[in-house]
Amino acid sequence: MLGRLLMRLFVAAAAVAAIGGLGWMYVSPPPGMHVTRDGVPYLSPPVVNPATGEAVPLERLVQHYKGGGK
């Protein structure tokens, strides 16, 4: 009976920690989750252009597909 009670307490603590952590990330996201007005994360790596093999910033790729890039 003690084992069953401890398991329920453990499950309840894990659920509270998971829900609390997700809520905290929603209210106060870390700097790596901040995004530009186009939805591109600030800390995103460049992507490779398959035609030329050069590294292209993700922001320029998003602008190109939205119709505003060169």
Q: Can you give a write-up of this model?
A:
- The chain is mainly alpha-helical.
- It contains two helices and two strands.
- A two-stranded antiparallel sheet has the order 1-2.
- The radius of gyration is 21 Å and the shape is elongated.
Summarize the structure.
This protein has helices at residues 2-27, 58-66, and strands at residues 47-48, 55-56. The chain is mainly alpha-helical and 70 residues long.
Shape: elongated
| Low-confidence blocks of residues | none
Instruction: Give the N-to-C terminal Cα separation.
Output: 68 Å
Name the strands of the widest sheet in spatial order. 1-2
Based on helices, strands and strand pairing, what is the structural class?
mainly alpha
Helix tally equals 2
What key attributes describe this structure?
70 residues; mainly alpha; two-stranded antiparallel sheet; 2 helices; 2 strands
